[in-house]
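4.2 Preliminary Data

To establish feasibility before requesting continued support, the project team ran the inverse folding procedure on a target of 503 residues. The structure was first converted into the token representation described in Section 3, and no sequence information of any kind was made available to the design step. The complete token record follows.
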């Protein structure tokens, strides 16, 4: 290698190595002082992106744990109030039993009834005043009867989201509003489902004739009008069965069907409660009719054979055939109307829709209900990230004891049965709350484990391995010192050329 003075290549090489080792040592010092392997995007761009997502998930999960704990506190508040209601109902039943015996006079029963009415008033006060963070818990605002609804399948004819109200305005007409209709699957043409707000309520216009079908819809009735209220009606040509589901004047569900006039009908033993959402699932299979209310079979009958036809005249919430019955209307709202082209067996209904009585599975929402949504996950997938908490009303009206009196022996005897049903209804609410609290506690445990594992994963990506980094630091420190020494030596080498020139 030639001895030159214009370019000191050895010094340049030493300076370059010094810069590299000094930069590496600086990075090690930053990592050791911060405890983080990734301090900027330049350290590990992909790792930084993954780490930030993990950090956001951990933070969100921790807030979800706090959300679930708040929900547990709310449930405990409701359960504490229900415990007082429990005591009042037991005392009321004790008083009713006392007044039901013949050894008391009418005046004495009036005295007993005064305490009975005071207990009833206290239950109503508790129902109206119990609240958590400004939310009323027991007055019915959070009541919901839920079931997991089946996903779309090849057997589904259509699914229509209808969140409207059909009201009788003048005695001879209908007004209706709809917040949206959606054509989903299985019907030819987008006009196959029509909502007509002027004369025919919610109508369907499609051809379907067969020996099997399943009808499913939610309804919420506002009042019992003293008239029949139409839920579902289909017209049929000669030789086919015309079909109808209605609420009678007392509020029970009736099923009517025949070839021409309604000569056959069946009455459900269960009456839906007012201002609550209820699920009706009805099947027809070669003359076998079955109807389920909130998952419980209330009608099962076999009356002849013959296909049922759904032609151009299929109605929800409206009866165009008023000449057959008294004037009919539906006073309420309907949602999630579904018709399938096959009938399901009684056992399959339970499995298919995953329902059992009025148990609240808290897996799916129904419209216009002010329930509490507890969110604890990191996204917005309902099955994974949140569920709804519904709490039944314990108002005296909803418990069925608003008009009970025990100032007569007959009234006291009747009150015993009403109170027994009220206690059962209240127990269902408490049992549902207990199950929900257990679920929340399990959810919290699961989220804590998930957050812990995410912390561990984030640490693997983000945190500094001190032992490894310290080894690297010592190496870079020695190399930096060596580079400084060699740079000093390299800077002195051009002096050798001066010695040659001086001679």
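Position-by-position output of the design step:
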């Amino acid at each position: 290698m030639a001895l030159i003075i214009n370019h000191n290549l050895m010094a340049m090489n030493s300076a370059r190595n010094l810069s590299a080792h000094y930069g590496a040592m600086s990075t090690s010092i930053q990592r050791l002082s911060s405890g983080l392997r990734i301090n900027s995007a330049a350290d590990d761009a992909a790792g930084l992106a993954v780490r930030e997502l993990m950090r956001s998930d951990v933070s969100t999960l921790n807030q979800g744990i706090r959300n679930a704990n708040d929900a547990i506190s709310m449930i405990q508040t409701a359960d504490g109030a229900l415990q007082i209601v429990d005591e009042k109902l037991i005392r009321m039943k004790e008083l009713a039993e006392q007044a039901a015996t013949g050894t008391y006079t009418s005046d004495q029963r009036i005295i007993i009834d005064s305490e009975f009415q005071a207990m009833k008033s206290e239950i109503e006060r508790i129902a109206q005043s119990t609240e958590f963070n400004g939310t009323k818990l027991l007055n019915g605002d959070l009541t919901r009867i839920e079931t997991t609804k089946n996903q779309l399948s090849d057997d589904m004819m259509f699914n229509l989201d209808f969140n409207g109200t059909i009201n009788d305005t003048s005695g001879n007409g209908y007004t209706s509003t709809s917040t949206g209709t959606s054509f989903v699957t299985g019907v030819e043409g987008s006009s196959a489902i029509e909502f007509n707000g002027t004369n025919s309520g919610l109508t369907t216009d499609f051809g379907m004739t067969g020996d099997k079908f399943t009808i499913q819809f939610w309804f919420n009735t506002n009042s019992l009008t003293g008239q029949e209220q139409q839920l579902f009606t289909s017209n049929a040509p000669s030789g086919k069965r015309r079909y109808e589901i209605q609420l009678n004047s007392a509020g029970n569900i009736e099923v009517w069907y025949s070839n021409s006039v309604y000569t056959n009908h069946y009455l459900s033993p269960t009456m839906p409660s007012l201002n609550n959402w209820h699920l009706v699932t009805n099947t027809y299979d070669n003359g076998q009719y079955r109807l389920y209310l909130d998952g419980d079979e209330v009608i099962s009958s076999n009356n002849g054979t013959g296909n049922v036809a759904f032609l151009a005249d299929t109605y929800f919430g409206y009866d165009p055939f008023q000449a057959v019955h008294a004037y009919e209307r539906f006073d309420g709202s309907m949602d999630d109307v579904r018709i399938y082209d096959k009938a399901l067996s009684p056992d399959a209904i339970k499995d298919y829709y995953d329902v059992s009585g009025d148990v609240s599975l808290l897996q799916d929402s129904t419209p216009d209900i002010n329930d509490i949504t507890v969110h604890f996950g990191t996204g917005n997938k309902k099955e994974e990230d949140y569920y709804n908490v519904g709490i039944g009303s314990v108002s005296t009206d909803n418990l069925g004891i608003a008009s009970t009196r025990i100032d007569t022996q007959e009234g006291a005897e009747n009150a015993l049965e009403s109170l027994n049903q009220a206690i059962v209804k209240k127990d269902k609410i408490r049992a549902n709350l207990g199950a929900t609290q257990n679920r929340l506690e399990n959810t919290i445990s699961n989220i804590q484990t998930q957050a812990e594992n995410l912390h561990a994963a984030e640490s693997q990506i983000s945190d500094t391995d001190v032992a490894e980094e310290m080894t690297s630091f010592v190496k870079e420190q020695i190399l930096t010192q060596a580079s400084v020494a060699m740079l000093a030596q390299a800077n002195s080498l051009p002096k050798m050329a001066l010695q040659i020139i001086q001679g």
